[in-house]
């Protein structure tokens, strides 16, 4: 495990050397970091980490993005997620897997009242429609590992929420 300063990520290139696979789940919220901070963390830091990983020999990069990611979106969150997907793909990994989960079901240490309400509602909906609107973070993690263990099917693979659920069961 290496601790890096994302404001000086280039100084930590050695931490990205010699890895066959890179996993990226980096992100923040607009409420926590402001609009500029959100863009810096969710797009700029991720893109720079991908570039360092590729330069360090990484062959397969696995990126957690978001359902609805679209570089043309009017919504900042979805636009930034779409932009970073494009930037990561452009780095030129042998394989790139992008996961687009719906609402992540997890327990957080910090208080996010609206997210908690949404999770309670979606947790109940998930009992009837388990793959429609949400996904437990443990399922996403299992899917990320499983996609690396499977043979590659093309250079870029995008997994939407239903596929994440399926792969996360493996």
Automatic annotation (TrEMBL):
Gene Ontology CC annotations of this record: cytoplasm
Molecular functions per Gene Ontology: catalytic activity
Protein's name in the database: Protein HTATIP2
Domain of life: Eukaryota
Gene: Htatip2
NAD(P)-binding domain residues: 4-151
GO terms under biological process: import into nucleus
Matches recorded under InterPro entries: NAD(P)-bd_dom (IPR016040), NAD(P)-bd_dom_sf (IPR036291)
Gene3D superfamilies tied to this protein: NAD(P)-binding Rossmann-like Domain
Subunit composition and interactions: Monomer. Forms homodimers during oxidative stress. Interacts (via N-terminus) with elongation factor EEF1A1 (via middle-region); the interaction is direct and competes with EEF1A1 binding to guanyl-nucleotide exchange factor EEF1B2, thereby inhibiting GDP for GTP exchange and reactivation of EEF1A1. Interacts with nuclear transport receptors XPO4, IPO5/RANBP5, IPO7, IPO9 and KPNB1 as well as GCN1L1/GCN1 and LRPPRC probably through their HEAT repeats. Binds NCOA5/CIA.
Species of provenance: Catharus fuscescens (Veery)
Pfam families: NAD_binding_10
């Amino acid at each position: 495990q290496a601790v890096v300063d994302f404001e000086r990520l280039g100084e930590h290139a050695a931490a990205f050397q010699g890895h066959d696979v890179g996993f990226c789940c980096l992100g923040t919220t607009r409420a926590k970091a402001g609009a500029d901070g959100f863009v810096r963390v969710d797009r700029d830091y991720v893109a720079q980490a991908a570039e360092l990983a590729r330069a360090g020999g990484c062959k397969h990069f696995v990126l957690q993005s978001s359902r609805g990611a679209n570089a043309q979106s009017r919504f900042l969150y979805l636009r930034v997620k779409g932009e970073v997907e494009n930037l990561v793909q452009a780095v030129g990994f042998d394989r790139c897997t992008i996961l687009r989960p719906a609402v992540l079901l997890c327990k957080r240490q910090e208080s996010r009242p609206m997210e908690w309400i949404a999770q309670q509602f979606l947790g109940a909906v998930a009992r009837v429609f388990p793959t429609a609107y949400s996904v437990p973070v443990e399922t996403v993690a299992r899917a990320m590992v499983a996609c690396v263990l499977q043979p590659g099917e093309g250079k870029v693979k995008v997994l939407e929420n239903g596929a994440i659920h399926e792969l996360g069961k493996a």
